Amino acid sequence: MQGGPAMESIDGSLKTMGFDYIDLMLIHSPQPWVEVNQSENRYKEENREVWRAMEDAMQAGKLRAIGISNFLEDDIDNLLESCTVKPMVNQVLAHITNTPFELLDYCRKQHILVEAYSPVAHGEALKNPKIAAMAEKYGVSPAQLCIKYDLQLGLIVLPKTKDVKHMEENARMDFVISEEDMDVLKNLERIKDYGESSFFPVFGGKM
Ligand SMILES: NC(=O)c1ccc[n+]([C@@H]2O[C@H](COP(=O)([O-])OP(=O)(O)OC[C@H]3O[C@@H](n4cnc5c(N)ncnc54)[C@H](OP(=O)(O)O)[C@@H]3O)[C@@H](O)[C@H]2O)c1
After folding, report:
1. How many whole angstroms from 143 Cα to the centroid of ligand 1?
2. Secondary structure in 3-state letters for the chain
3. Is the pTM of this model over 0.90?
């Protein structure tokens, strides 16, 4: 069993939370967050090393499932070439107007579940008139339409809200978007301006 900084970090997280195990742990990004959109370095060896530590931690019962986030196809291949446990999930940005279809297909092919983060574009999708018009057609809110769109793509969806009413609304998914309208939504023009959130690396900005 290997030690090293990654295993120390996993042990540190367990200790901080007072847990014996963690259900799912992800590598947040193949690059250090401050280097996203700033560097070409994909940290191949470092990612393999962290992944080995996560495999060991899983073997030791400290983690139930292990995965990745913000990994592109090459980053995934880098792990697949050396891993003994395949990543179980890849958590990526996926919302109406900004959906990485090729990456989703690739993950599907590799039997890696995809989790969609920022499904309502951190709130920006709620200001899009075309999304609002389609939501009205189905008698739902723009947030519900965004969440359902991701669900119908076969994704696990991670909406965030601090509002109980929004939480209840986001769980009401008793409608189906037609294939025709899914095609319209898949082809909507990309949101270019994420407003106050534009500086976040996930929306193309730099920390
Ligand atoms: N792996 C990564 O790199 C990464 C990156 C970014 C985010 N994430 C994760 O993804 C999750 C969501 O991220 P996010 O906050 O960026 O995105 P989000 O869920 O797309 O957007 C959250 C915003 O939408 C609003 N909202 C949610 N439901 C609503 C509703 N029904 N009606 C009106 N407004 C609604 C919230 O406001 P209210 O609170 O007022 O409802 C909040 O301002 C988080 O758990 C986060 O940790 C992961």
Report:
1. 10
2. CCCHHHHHHHHHHHHHHCCCCEEEEEECCCCCHHHCCCCCCCCHHHHHHHHHHHHHHHHCCCEEEEEEECCCHHHHHHHHCCCCCCCCEEEEECECCECCHHHHHHHHHCCCEEEEECCCHHHHHHHCHHHHHHHHHHCCCHHHHHHHHHHHCCCEEECCCCCHHHHHHHHCCCCCCCHHHHHHHHCCCCCCCCHHHCCCHHHCCCC
3. yes
Domain 88-207, CATH: 3.20.20.100
Q: Which atom of ligand 1 is nearest to the CA of 163?
A: 41
Query: How many A from CA of 84 to the centre of ligand 1?
Result: 33
Segments making up each domain of the chain, as ranges: 1-85, 88-207
Ligand 1 midpoint to CA 8 (Å):
30
The 10s digit of each residue's pLDDT in 165-205 is: 999 999 999 999 999 999 999 999 999 888 888 988 888 88
Q: Is the CB of 132 under 6 A from ligand 1?
A: no
